[in-house]
Design goal:
The complex is a heterodimer of chains A (245) and B (205). With 245 residues, chain A is an alpha+beta fold. Chain A is built from five helices and nine strands; from the N terminus they run αααααβββββββββ. In chain A, β2 and β3 form a beta hairpin. Helix content of chain B is 65%, strand content 0%. Chain B is globular. The chains are: A alpha+beta (245), B mainly alpha (205). At the A-B interface, α1, α3 and α4 of A face α3, α4, α5, α8 and α9 of B. The complex binds zinc ion.
Chain lengths: 245, 205
Amino acid sequence: MRDASEHRDRWQDDVAAYALDALPPREAEIFEAHLEGCEACREQLRWLTVAVDQIPQDVEQLPAPPQLRDRLLSVVDSEAEVPRETTAPEPAPETRVRRLPSFLGGFSMRPALAGLAAALVLVAGVVGYQLHDSGGDPGDGTRTVSAQAAKGVDSSGALEVEGDHGSLRVSGMPPTHGGDVYQAWIQDRDGGVHPSSVFVVADDGSGVVSIPSGLDGAAAVMVTREPRGGSETPSEPPLMTARLD
Amino acid sequence: MDGSVETDPARLERLADEELMAVVDAKVAAAFEVLYDRHGAAAYSLAYRIVGDRNGAEDVAQEAFLSIWRSNARYDRARGSVRSWVLSVVRNRAIDALRRGSGSAPKLDHDDEMLLEAREAEERTDAEALRRETSRELQGALGTLPDDQSQVIRLAYFGGFSHSEIADMLGMPLGTVKGRMRLGLEKIRVQLAEAIGPEAALEGT
Ligand SMILES: [Zn+2]
């Protein structure tokens, strides 16, 4: 009996720390040596490992970036004994987020502005716009431009422009996670892309963002998802684009 | 290779994880695709929780899945479910990445102060890391534990700190830290067992 309690005093806490990978290397070696000959500790370790395995399951779940999947599968196909057939059906869509179009074969690095401009070519242009100044009333007039969602994104938007500023009204935007935000960008006619307002959307995916300046002479307004606080350059291809030219 | 290995994507999708792993080990790309679609989001989410930025999390998840694909990490049924095993591979990679990146103290709890952290990453101290490691997994097993137990477990699991580092950070005896780890894990384990059934709760104690 005394042996058992001595054993427990000596090892029971080490089992838990070891299960959590919290023993420093020397102590871990000593414990592993003990484990070799101790079925009681092995049993306790198996028991507690189930608890440790539960910890990562409770982490807030985020959608994996589509480009990660694309990159992995291209490596895997190149190394496989049995590559996937090229006619393989599209994977089931993610339930948490709509898949973005794969962007120039995946983008492991942040896209250069030139690359972004090229990608815009892939996005269909204006659905239509109307001029509201036919009546001649309010100042030099406002016009409303429909934004075009990227392929696979089921959102819509309308950009109302008045001179150099305007506002973008969006609906059906996918939810953001982990502190991400949406950000508006202004593309000038040379293809340069400049950061504009950061915004979030309501639970139903709708929102309005003010574009305070920069629309005079702009070619397009785009929307991407960015880390909290926004970015200097877009981190992903646009989810939505409103062309002004 | 073995001619009996399943390669039809539709059939692969119906395999249990454990069976699927045998096909992944036979280097069938379609099997890897199914594996990734089942566990990729959980892997990325865990990587993000540990390293705290999206590019880093993506790199970690990619390394983890490639090591699985290349059989550098091998699945052992005795270790538990495939999901748990994938996540343990991710966790190891993520902690390695933290240690590579920060030199000394791993980073913690980026979510709430991401911008601040991006700027202050260099001058971060253990005390700051500790202050930020507030309760996060409110709904999960950790959320049911007393704060003093969940704190040491979070610091070990998500921060990659050893028990002695945690004792230093908290200014408490090593034995107290280890004891809290054990009490917390035992409590989670008992709750899991109770959720499954009374027989399971008896097993192993
Ligand atoms: Zn023992």
